[in-house]
Amino acid sequence: MTNAELAILGLVAETPRHGYEIEQVLEQRNMRRWADIGFSSIYYLLSKLEKKGWISSQMQPAQGKGPARRVYSILPAGQQAWYQATLAALSGPGQANTAFLVGLAGLPGIRPQDAVAALRQYRRHVLERIQEVEQAWQGAENLPAFLQGMFEYSANALQTELDWLDRYIPRFESQITEQDDEDL
Amino acid sequence: MTNAELAILGLVAETPRHGYEIEQVLEQRNMRRWADIGFSSIYYLLSKLEKKGWISSQMQPAQGKGPARRVYSILPAGQQAWYQATLAALSGPGQANTAFLVGLAGLPGIRPQDAVAALRQYRRHVLERIQEVEQAWQGAENLPAFLQGMFEYSANALQTELDWLDRYIPRFESQITEQDDEDL
DNA sequence: TCATAATACTCTAGTGATAGAGTACTCTAC
DNA sequence: GTAGAGTACTCTATCACTAGAGTATTATGA
Fold first, then answer.
1. Which residues numbered 93-112 in A keep a CB inside 8 Å of some CB on B?
2. Residue B93: is the preceding peptide bond cis (ω within 30°)?
3. How close is the nearest chain A Cα to the Cα of B12, in Å?
4. pTM of the model
5. Straight-line distance from CA A140 to C1' C18, in Å?
6. Residue A140 CA to chain centroid, in angstroms?
């Protein structure tokens, strides 16, 4: 099961939901960052999950504003699949930031000046993300324990990246100087 | 450009290579872990890169063992694309271990005992990975600076996860006890 | 009452990726 | 001289995903 499928299955398992609502929840909870799901994929994924027999749907006539909607509910098989897949995701093994590793693998072919500039840019992104996480953290009082854990996990990971960058960027800068020395 | 494309483009940029050779290099350098490329995708990706005008190919008659091979070389446009994409990958922003975050998001629906078992399993995976990285680190003497950096990056990230797990698992265990108390 | 905004999908066409089976050639060892 | 291992693809069928345009319904305010 992909991240996207598991995320949507999880939302339907929480409570019966229709597609448009899922779109909104993804937005509210800032889930797009990790479950990467485009708008048009939601309906595609819902029908896929239904075909698998994990969720079932029912039309609900128009009520309040907007037209009728198709509401999806979890089925026992879906509940089981969700449970197993969530445990699997929690038991790993995972891999951090593969895009950045691909970049690192290419470093020998990059001019040191450019590399340093890119890493500084990366550092700025990390700082931004740290602020985002801390704001969200402080904004939410009386968090359930698991959410505390998620914030801590992200905050720790980001801080570690920041530390690494602060040790590594100067080393790379000194390489530039050495090169200049050789050029003399 | 996807991770997979960038990784292969990078290998061709290093030196002209044929498909089967790329397969072997991916294996040797343990690149499958982050650039996730199946065997059958290599030829597909190579022809895709060629269509884009980033690499060109030439048949090389059989020499030594094995039949004739199609050797791919980087073109100027490909060199540029590789350079830009590598800088982009280095300047982020990246995202750590999304699968694990999806798992964490599902925690409220998981029985604490199961969650603790899964997290312990995850901890075991992290330990294994730490050992792998440290072995590879010690195995390679006189590393170029950039490789040092990659090892450090991975090692730091893994150590941070381990620390988090060691703080977080006990908290979760105490929740189990509280629940037991309530059950009385 | 009529335009606008918001709700809630639906459809099509296209790209991307992969498994797995099949083909063919060359060297080595017996 | 031939069986087997290793080299090096090639092809087909299928699944996965996404952008973007289109459709239809209801509430709201001027």
1. 93-110
2. yes
3. 12
4. 0.84
5. 43
6. 19
